[in-house]
Structure prediction request, 228 residues.
Amino acid sequence: DTGVSQDPRHKITKRGQNVTFRCDPISEHNRLYWYRQTLGQGPEFLTYFQNEAQLEKSRLLSDRFSAERPKGSFSTLEIQRTEQGDSAMYLCASSGPLGGAQGGYTFGSGTRLTVV
Amino acid sequence: KQEVTQIPAALSVPEGENLVLNCSFTDSAIYNLQWFRQDPGKGLTSLLLIQSSQREQTSGRLNASLDKSSGRSTLYIAASQPGDSATYLCAVNQGGSEKLVFGKGTKLTVNP
Prediction:
């Protein structure tokens, strides 16, 4: 197992376009999290899945953002009609059955989005 | 609303020095506190996790303490090395939530 994998590593898109990112968690981890990190800031929570159920969602996740985890394995994060303010690093993390609060989190290397 | 503050924002030290990074949080009803390391342009690496019932955790040259009642944590790095240069992030889990609330981090530079 190579850890949490995110694809792509970098994405440059024009304002108004839609983008989709993928996260593959550690195989035995049933919990998956998305965070967004802008320059000079700490990561901000976006959403959390336990298996395929989306259990927690931040107000930051506006109508233009949607996340899915259809089979409880990989997850996708889609941003529609991108804006320059969406430029950030999008981080994915996973944790085992105990949950991250008890067992800790493993983060991926992130997807760097630049909206021009 | 939980807020996490890290001081200083940046720190530059010569190699071999012992140093302390500070983290404070406004709501003491936390489940745990975690310290992470982030290298430029990379994801986060978990360093230490302290449950709310614990006072400290140690891993190699790193020691993290937690004073839940005063809303403070410190990360002590002994005998710093250039390879320790990175941004160190503090984060808390509130009770009943899987969400981590992060500080903005302390950027550490260890000069050879």
In short: The radius of gyration of chain B is 13 Å. Chain B touches chain A through 25 residues (CB under 8 Å). The CA atoms of residues 53 and 87 of chain B lie 27 Å apart.
